[in-house]
Structure formats: structure tokens, C-alpha cells
Amino acid sequence: MDTKVALITGSTSGIGLGIAEHLASMKCSIAFHGLGDPNAIRELVESIQNRFGVKCQFFDEDLNNPENAHTLVEQTVQTFGKIDILVNNAGIQHVAPLEIFPLGEWEKVLNINLTSPFVLMQAALIHMKRQNSGRIINIASVHGLIASAQKSAYVASKHGIIGLTKVAALETAQTPITCNAICPGWVFTPLVAKQIEDRAKASGKTFEEEKLALLLEKQPSGEFASVEQIASLVAYLCSDDAGQIRGAAITMDGGWTAQ
Ligand code: NAD
Fold first, then answer.
1. What is the number of structural domains in the chain?
2. Catalytic annotation, pick one of 80, 154, 186, 256
3. N or C of the chain: less Cβ packing under 10 Å?
4. What is residue 225's DSSP assignment?
5. Do 68 and 174 share a domain, yes or no?
6. CA nearest 157: which of 115, 186, 194?
7. Taking every pair of C-alpha atoms in the chain, what is the biggest distance, in angstroms?
8. Which CATH number characterizes residue 237's domain?
């Protein structure tokens, strides 16, 4: 990995940050990306750069505007000279019944979870095809395979990215470039903590009670998948051994979709 350059969207938090740390530990250069407090992010990126002795750069394009996705790839290539790995990880959630789901929230979820990854893949593939190598890994969800109530935009976006993953895999099938999706179940990150907080507000129960209830409703193992477990699967998909895994949607969901 020590000559590779990885762009990981949404790597200032949660799963994306775990993937960035894991790839940096394997000596990969990291294009960090996401939103948040610039000073805290600068400190975070510097600490990873110093800890692993790899080149890191932070970019803050807002992916609610898909045109920024193209700029993000071009900035990565300008800074590092190439792009070997694209991890489409940035994502948001909005929970509401279908008949009152706000159109603005639908558009935002689709922009960040599906349209920007599409533009990122378009831009990255031009460079990857030129260099005749590359890995694209889309962090989808179990909600790319099955649905849950009140998550219309999220479920539509995640089903969409799995379809897009398959198309990219077919269009690169006779090249060394691969494209796959990972479908996590519950992973304890800020995105999920917010859903638990909302449930606790609505039910009057404690955060810990709602955390357990959320897990037990869907995930038979009763345990969260960890950020490190997902990061290690990403690293495997980036390896030569994974060269014939193409267009797959790999679950890591504690048995959620086995039911
Ligand atoms: P998170 O909220 O911890 O991190 C989301 C990241 O996306 C952050 O870095 C944030 O800055 C970035 N982001 C959000 N809006 C953005 C925007 N407009 N422009 C640019 N960046 C933006 O979330 P997470 O739980 O780590 O989720 C990461 C991915 O994993 C998402 O695609 C999510 O759908 C998926 N996923 C998460 C879980 C889970 O249980 N946490 C389960 C399945 C799938």
C-alpha cells in the first residue's frame, strides 16, 4: 500500500475515519474529506500524518452539490499526482414517513449518498483507466438490499449505489480496476447515535435502553459491527487477492439480512 493514494469521502468521522486510519497504518497516502470544525479536523489529520508517517491532505467540498465531487477528485490528483483508491463513504440519513418526507431532505440524501458518488466515480475512473489500476469501494448499507420504514430516501439511495456499483464493475471487468460495495448493518457512529437520541426523545426512555432496542430489532448478533472490521474489509478489497471480486455487495451486518 505504501505507494497508493486513497480518497475517502466523509473521513472526518465514524466509518470513514476508521478506514482512513487503517489505510494510513498500511502506509497509504490519504485524501481526507468531510465537514466539521476546521481546527479539530486539522489536528486530527496532523495526528494521523505524524503517527503513521504518511502524506495526508484535507478537503472540505460539500457533496450536497454534486459539482463539488468532480473538484474533489481533481484536487486529490493535483495534490498527490494520482488516485488509486476511491472510497465513497460520506452519507446522511433522514427519517420520516413517506407521505410527509420533505422533498428538500430527499434531494439532500440523494445528492450526498448517490449523485455525488456517481460524479466521484466518473472523475476517478478517468484517472484509473489511464493508469490501468484502481479500486472503488462504495459504503452502501443493508438498506441497499432491504428496506426499513421511514427511510425512503436513504433506502432508495443505497439501493441505487449498489446498482451503480454493478454497472461500474461490468464496465471495468476486463481491466485491473474493481468496484464493490460494503453493506454494514448497525455500526455505532455519530450517524447512528443521532437516531438513538431521536428515539430516546420520542419514547422517554434512556439512550442506553434505546441503543439496545435498536440493535435487537434488526441485528440478530445483538452487537454492533465495528469501524475497524469494516476498515479491514476495505483493505482486503484493495489487495491483489481481491482482484476477482467484482460488483459484489458484501454484508457485514450481524445476520440482519440472513433473516
Ligand atoms: P458519520 O455521520 O459518522 O460520518 C459521515 C461523514 O460524511 C462525515 O465525515 C461527514 O462530514 C460527511 N458528510 C456528511 N454530509 C456531508 C456533505 N454534505 N458533504 C460532505 N461530507 C459530508 O456517519 P457513519 O455512520 O460513519 O456513515 C458513513 C457511511 O456508512 C454512510 O454512507 C452511511 O450511510 C454508511 N452506513 C453507516 C451505518 C452505521 O450504522 N453507522 C450502517 C450502514 C451504512
1. 2
2. 154
3. C
4. B
5. yes
6. 115
7. 56
8. 3.40.50.720
